[in-house]
Write a structure and sequence with these properties.
mainly alpha; two-stranded antiparallel ribbon; rod-shaped; single chain; 288 residues
Length: 288
Amino acid sequence: MAETRPVATATAAKSSTSVQPKKRSNAISWVAPVVCIIAGYVIWRFLLGDPSNFTQPDPAGGFWPHHKGPKGGLVRMYEGGIIVPLLIATFLTVVTFVIERLMTILKATGTGNIAEFIRKVQYHLANKNVDQAISECDRQKGSVGNVMKAGLRKYKEMISNTELDTEQKVLAIQKEVEEATALELPMLEKNLVFLSTIASVATLLGLLGTVLGMITSFAALASDGGGGAAAELSRGISEALYNTALGIGTSAIAIIMYNIFTTKIDSITYGIDESGFTLTQSFASLYK
């Protein structure tokens, strides 16, 4: 009989978990960049590059029409070159993933204040009212509530368990919380890599476009010479700098939003950690 108890304990410790993997499609991670690149070219070629926006349009058209004489300040961005569609695409990608992450993180935050939610759960657990604590999780509806709910279900299961001692029960609750956390955190951090990457790449693309534009302008100066060429050089440099402006602006937005999202994720992560600590400490003190 002495040898059968560890077997029973191991079996109990491996009891079925209430945490189930969440199937979430991440098609946006490859669809959005492709769509944004296409949209960037369409905006550059057909919106900015509309022949009516220039005094000397290129009737031949094609993939890269060489229109001249832009009629407006924004239209001058067209003459920044073929890098401009890529910069527009990076900007659209940033906007897309900012909206996607904003919706996801707002949903993960749930309703109400996280600290207040944890205090309510602590109150119900102190009164040994686990069902009411689970109801609070249903009302919270966020990642902290999901993790807390998974832990509370195991908490409730361990109350009636007679095969494990208190320390083993606490470990079982802790394991349940860790499994639930492992499912929630990747969902919060998913796709942030696009913002962090674009934050660096957009500036480099802008500088590349500017350098290419200045190379073209200086080449024209060397070929033509004279005062007219100097004026053409000034115009070319002005147009090339649109690349830098668009790249830096896109990079700035990506950096700001990335920091905002990571700060919010850290807050949610802290709430998850606190919820796990609350469950284990409550069980250890009430069910010795």
